[in-house]
Every structure is written in structure tokens, then in C-alpha cells.
## 1
Amino acid sequence: MKGCAIGMDAIADCALGKTPDPELAAHLAICAQCRDALEESRAMAARIDDVLHRVAAVDPPSFGPERVMARVVGPARTRAPGIPGWWRWTAIGSALLAVSMAIMMWVRRPAPVIALSAWRSPTQVLLRPPVAAAWATRPRLGEGFFKIKSSGEIHAQ
């Protein structure tokens, strides 16, 4: 086996059931080491198959994955006879329809109506200077825009 040109992969393939190619068959006919390796590999494959068949034939233990999943999920739910299951979907659909209609009505609500008498042209507002309110009031005779305190400080009204 150590000095042979045939690799262990070819012997393993042959041991697992693949028919040997003519080169491998000719080599196995003359090399005792490779023949022994092939027989050993076939025996190992047969033992593995035997163990797998025995394991597959045994029932799973009661503490296996099925029992664990049954404890996690819980007992299967049973529905009382005569109660249809479609009523849930009908109720959910009705609730979704009501919510979507409420949202549509809120989004598409009409704009508030402004009376024409309350409407002001934006041009008039923009053309009015900020000091226009001060121009509307006039000081009366004897009054001024500035008052002088007795201490001599001037304060604007």
C-alpha cells in the first residue's frame, strides 16, 4: 500500500460498492497489500451498515426529541364540535376593514372652509411695513413717545 500508485480513495470507493476500473482490478490481482486493505474496508463498511440498521430498528427513547417538543408545545388543541373556525377570520377582516376606513377618512378629510369676509390678500400683508402699527397711533398734545424719569433716564413707551 505504501509503495503503490493506487490511492486510498479508489480502494474506499471500491469498498463502498463502486465497480473497480480495469487498472485497479489489475493492480488488486498482483498487490496483496491493496487486496487486504480492500477487504478490511469492505468489512468496516459492512459493520457500519449493520450498526445503522440496528439503530434504525430501535424505537426512540421516551426522553427523545419528540417528548421534549411535546412538553414545549403542549398538548394538541382540540376544537369543540359545531363551532366554525371561519368566524375568527371574519372578525379579523372586519376589524382591519374598519381600521383602514377610519384611517382613510382621517387622511382624506375636507379642508376647513374659510369665509370670504375673513380672507386677506397676501400681497396686502406683505406690503405693510412692520412699523405700520406705530403710524396708526398719534401722540396727543403734551404727550411724547419718550418719558423722562425724575432721575433723568429716558425710556420708550
## 2
Amino acid sequence: MVVPLLTKLYGLLVTCACSLQSLFLLMVRLYWGFQMMQTGWGKLHNLAKVTDFFASLGMPVPAVTAPLVVGLEFVGGILIMLGLGSRLIALLLTCDMLVAFIAADREALSSIFSDPDKFYAAAPYTFLIAFLIVLIFGPGRFSLDALWEHLRTGPRQTGSLPS
């Protein structure tokens, strides 16, 4: 009698949690997309400083690399918020955050196991996690990607999320 009740309650929990996936993905996309857009916007207005910073880190061709990265962060943040090209943009922004860790926050990256608090506190960390979530789980139902998929193929017959 207890096991069937627990099984039913667990099934209800899973159903409720699954119904929140798209809302959660929307919140992640809106918040972190906006944060990335703001970061890119700020860097766009200080492109010379960003270029100098990239040069000081030994980044290749900083005069080309800086505008590309800044553009990716600004436009990519907008696209993440809209849920348009989400997985591709999330992949590019994930790479951007990995390079940020390697080039500008190497000490935090190298302390991932010895001092995890330093790793978690580094600026790229939360962006990296947010973009990995979008990359792995997709943008969810409340996205232009899902709308495009719906228009292209018709409504899904199953309750699965768009990929």
C-alpha cells in the first residue's frame, strides 16, 4: 500500500517538475542572455580598452578578435533571450567563456578542485553554466526556435521539448 502511493506521488513530482522545464529555460535565457548582452554593450563602448586587454593577454590578432568576441557577446545575448539559434549561440558563448577562463581567469580555473569557491566566484562561471544548460537542454517551448520548429514540422505529437 505504501509503495504504490510513493510511486504515484513520485510520478506526480516528475510530471510537475517536467512541466516547469520550459519556464526554467526561459528564465535562464532571459536573465543570462540579458546579462551577456549588457556585457557586450559595455565592451562595444570601450572597444579600444577591450582590444588592449586582449593584447595584454597575448590573444591572437586582438584588433580582430576583440570586435568579434564583443559582437558575439552582444548579439549572442539578444539571440539567447529570443531563443533563436539557441544551441549554436550557446556553443559559441560556451567557448567564449572557456577562453575567458583560460586567458583571463587561469588562476580560478586551476583552482577548480583545490579551491572551488575561487572557481565558482570567477566572472565566467555562471555564464558558462547558463550557456551549457541552453546548449544541452535546448531553449524550451517558449522560444523562436520552438516556434520555427512548430511552423516547419507542425505540432509535436509527444510531450517532448524541442531539441
## 3
Amino acid sequence: MELWRAGDDVVAAIPALTEALVDSDVEVQVGAAELLGRCGGKAAAAVPTLIGILADRHAHGFVRMTVIMTLGEIGPAATSAAPALIDTLGDSSMCTDAVRALVAIGDTAMPALVRALRHGQPTIRLGAAYVLGSLGDASVVASLVEILEDPDEGVRRAAAEALVSIRNRLTK
């Protein structure tokens, strides 16, 4: 299907693609999510449905993984998905894609990421620190410095690496 090459005409298909996200067939769900991702920010109306699928722990793993990638492709228009994406940082099978999606969403995800530095689960704190370092915004330095005292060694290391990344971006 060449839908993603249709330009502005693709906007008309977004409601149908959003409905297809909850089809009983996993392949239809995945295909719909992939096509929505190719629509980029124009697919912002599908974000609430995508968040619902991501939050559904009973949804097929491949569908959830595709939804994560789709949210990243939607980019800043998917800011409301940041908390749900942050929750997936604790799942080793989805963490890498969640990091990529949060980086693609960009600075608009920073408030949720800073809150995640205080999450009870170390892997979520670690992932949040990594994303904040990738975003490279100096406004989060104080929050990262705070978690240099985290009880988890991995979190401390991620905070230190994030601080180095921010410094490097600022000195370029």
C-alpha cells in the first residue's frame, strides 16, 4: 500500500487506521500502526488509542512494540504518550525502542522524564536519565546531579553519562 506517499490525502485515512488498531487480527493492528507512524505528526489524533494499546499488558507484544515505534514516528505530537512510554522503560524487551521514541518526542517529554528520575523502579530511572542525556538540555542538570546519589549503581552511572552528554553537546 502506498498510502504514506499520498501526502495530505492520508489525513482522511487516519480515522480508519485508528479503528484498525483495535482489530482482532494482530497483523491488521501492526499494519495500521505502521501506516500511522508513516503519517508522522498528522496522526496525532490516534495517540490516545496508541496509548491505550501500550498500557494494555494483554495486548500482543509485537503490537505494543510497533505502537512504541509509531509514537516515536509521530514525534512531538505524541507528547501525551511520554508517561506510558516511560513505563515501558522497565521492560527489557521494549526499553530500547521506548528510549528512541522518547528521544524522538523530544523536549516536550522532559517534564515526565524528570519525574521518572524519582520512580521506584531503577530501570525506569536509568532509562529516563539516558533519554535526558540524549536530549542534551542543560535545564535538567540539577535533577541528574541529584540522582548521582541513587542507591542503584546503574542509575548513578546513567546519570553521570547523561551529564557528560549534556556537557559535550553544550561545548560543541
